[in-house]
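Chapter summary example.
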Amino acid sequence: MESQKLYAYIRVSSRDQNEDRQMIVMRNLGIPERNIFVDKQSGKDFDRPQYKKLLRKLDENSVMYVKSIDRLGRSYRDLNEQWRIITKEKHADIVVVDMPLLDTRREKNLMGTLIGDIVLALLSYVAENERLCIKQRQAEGIIAAKARGVKFGRPVHKLPNNFYEVCCKWQNKQITIRQAAVDCGMAESTFFKKARQYMNKA
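The structure predicted for these 202 residues follows.
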């Protein structure tokens, strides 16, 4: 019988986050560096280049390790579908390090499969709910901040006190746009844009 091939999948939500903790776990499990696949993007779907690359390598002699179920994905429906593809179509095993019950190498009988499926369904449901709750809290936080007067987006810069006077001089061709911009402490393009807005309102 061919010896099992060990693979690991690591995901962090953005390029600013560090995958070192997950990487240390996988190295300690003896997974070869070349078999560790890392994606730096959201877990909202499975359109991830390294995950797809790993999926193509899996077969009946493969074991895929992931540190926790939310590192694999957060969508309840998509997570269960990928689990089905890996275990039923690819016939590979999955080990979720932080959840020993989610180890498809254990008890290949009907009861073991049933327990694993129930635990997966529960955890993936919790993972999706957590994602939805985070989005809701963010939306509620923005609404509350706006109610307190917090401004979002780029700050609005006040025009200099002499802007309208300088604008009138430029409009009447008393000074050049370059001189007008210098007098207002602005770039020429900024002065021109603000002057056009002022004239359109006048």
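To summarize the output: Helices lie at 20-28, 49-57, 69-72, 76-89, 110-147, 163-171, 177-184, 188-201.
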